[in-house]
Amino acid sequence: MSVSLYYTAERSTLLTQQEQEKIASIVDKYNENFKHEDDAETFDLYAYDDSEAEVILAGATKLPASMDVEDLMYTLEHWLQCLTQIRLAVIDAEWHVHLDDNNAVWIDDKWQMEE
To answer: Coil, helix or strand for 2?
Structure first.
């Protein structure tokens, strides 16, 4: 059974063109540097819908259950680092990130799974 990392950012203003380009660049970089792309999903964002101003970014990435713990932890850390870079590029957003029922919290400029 696999689990998924879910992420959502909300704010009252739409993403700017510059923010959209920066996000795409970050996602491309992390997907290109992901060493388990044959075994796991790459980072995915849902299509951006500028008609819904509150949700400016959302997506999910499935982590495969077939990985050993070390590879699974690498994968989770890799995608949390990707989200960290995106969060730093998108200012003034309200974020919600979780691994199924376990919340990730923002501490000292990075995402960490809540204990």
So the answer is: coil
Q: pLDDT tens digits for 84-107?
A: 999 999 989 999 999 888 877 777
Quote the tokens at residue 106: 């923002």
21-64 pLDDT, tens digit each: 999 999 999 999 998 877 788 999 988 777 766 899 999 998 87
Helix, coil or strand: residue 44 = coil
Contacts of 51 (CB under 8 A, 6+ apart): none
Could you tell me how many residues make up the chain? 115
Sign of torsion over alpha carbons 108, 87, 97, 12: positive
User: Which amino acid belongs to residue 38?
Assistant: D
- Count Cα atoms within 13 angstroms, Cβ side, for 74: 13
112 with 24: CB under 8 angstroms? no
Residue 80 is classified by DSSP as H
Nearest to 39 by CA among 82, 71, 70, 69: 71
